TrEMBL record:
Residues 14-40 are annotated as: Disordered. The keyword Membrane does not apply. This is ATP-NAD/AcoX kinase. The keyword Transferase applies.
Length: 383
């Protein structure tokens, strides 16, 4: 097996600082104190890959797009693709063009001097090794779109290690470790959709996924499906949860109310306008922080805290997709309440978490009571 590895070092940086994405917002994310997420996700995937496929042949993009991480995991890459023309840029200076140039080299694609390659390497195409059997990339939907475009017209499959804020495409594994397992064991591929959304519209609360491509993807149970919007009413659910929250007003309990339409209905029932796809903090009858960042949530927490979240329809993720502001540090200080419509739960086999903290993921695993109505609950398992 020959794997080509490319890491988008800025993927997901905007999440915990409340930007809902990083496309065009890297500088602002840095100003807000954002920390890189993708390198750690890459290391987790590579550590597992080294364990399950130690003899794998690896090509990799030059630093800051993965070379050091590959070597640290114990692999001696057969090819280091340099899309930077011999320079080593600051990670925040990497672009979609660099990703595309590296992927084309992995697949041994001759672009005939296309602009994207020239932009990435000042006119010199990166050196290509033998074509890879799989492109394994670390990033989000924007990175997936770049990889798919670079592989267009080839049969080379792609698989994503999820590191972005939004992950709508069905080309990603559930976790970094799962990506390594799939890469090491897949025997067939199928065509899957690459989706992305307009992040500016997303920040305003409008979610309009657009098809950006169709790619060959390894087939395995650990691949997630695209996000789907579940049908069904949440009015009675919202009424019941809001009533419970109001009963605790005056007790100093801090409620961290996650994003999404289901929890948004609870916010409406509490009498305030939800922040667009953001996290709001409520205590003693009023909004303490609206559209909060991770740091603002941590500052607002008290002695007793409760997170209210709803899983993503079609995927079942409770944490790790679309709500990175609710970080491991926040989760560890809160009790968890999961809410969902019956229709949403009918679309998922199990709930999932991907918090960036494997120990916390293990702690959260197991059976959890999900509120599905004004009074009704259903038991679901977090796997």
């Amino acid at each position: 097996m020959h794997v080509g590895i490319a890491v988008n070092p800025v993927a997901g940086m905007g999440g915990r600082v409340g930007l809902k994405g990083t496309d065009g917002k890297v500088a602002e994310a840095v100003e807000r104190g954002a920390e890189p997420r993708a390198p750690d996700r890459a290391r987790r995937m590579l550590d597992r890959l080294a364990a399950v496929a130690p003899d794998a042949t690896v090509s990799v993009a030059a630093d800051p797009m993965g070379e050091s991480a590959v070597r640290d995991a114990g692999f001696d890459p057969v090819s280091v693709v340099d899309p930077f023309g011999g320079e080593t840029p600051d990670p925040t200076a990497t672009t979609a063009a660099h990703t595309a140039a590296a992927v084309r080299a992995f697949a041994d694609v001759d672009d005939g001097g296309a602009d994207v390659g020239d932009e990435a390497s000042d006119g010199d195409e990166p050196a290509a090794a033998d074509p890879v059997d799989l492109v394994l990339f670390v990033g989000g939907d924007g990175t997936a779109s770049d990889v798919a475009a670079a592989l267009e017209g080839t049969d080379v499959p792609m698989l994503g290690v999820p590191a972005g804020v939004k992950v709508y495409s069905s080309v990603f594994a559930v976790s970094p470790e799962d990506a390594a397992e799939v890469a090491a064991s897949f025997s067939r591929t199928e065509r899957r959709e690459v989706m992305d959304i307009d992040e500016d519209a997303y920040r305003e609360g409008e979610v309009h996924p657009e098809l950006r491509g169709v790619a060959h993807v390894p087939v395995a149970d650990d691949l997630q499906s695209s996000k789907q919007t579940a049908s069904g009413t949440v009015e009675s659910l919202a009424e019941g949860v809001a009533a419970d929250v109001r009963e605790r007003d005056g007790e100093g309990i801090t409620f961290v109310l996650g994003p999404g339409s289901t929890v948004g209905a609870i916010k409406d029932e509490l009498g305030f306008e939800p922040s667009p796809i953001g996290v709001d903090v409520w205590r003693d009858g009023e909004v303490v922080v609206r559209d909060a960042t991770e740091a603002e949530i941590l500052d607002a927490l008290g002695e007793e805290n409760v997170i209210v979240v709803s899983p993503i329809g079609g995927q079942g993720f409770v944490f790790g997709r679309g709500n990175p502001q609710i970080s491991p540090a926040v989760i560890r200080r809160c009790d968890l309440r999961v809410v969902a419509s019956r229709a949403k739960l009918d679309d998922v086999r199990a709930l999932r978490v991907d918090t960036d903290d494997p120990d916390l993921d293990d702690e959260l695993a197991g059976w959890v009571r999900v509120r599905v109505g004004k009074f009704e609950t259903r038991m679901m398992k977090i796997v």
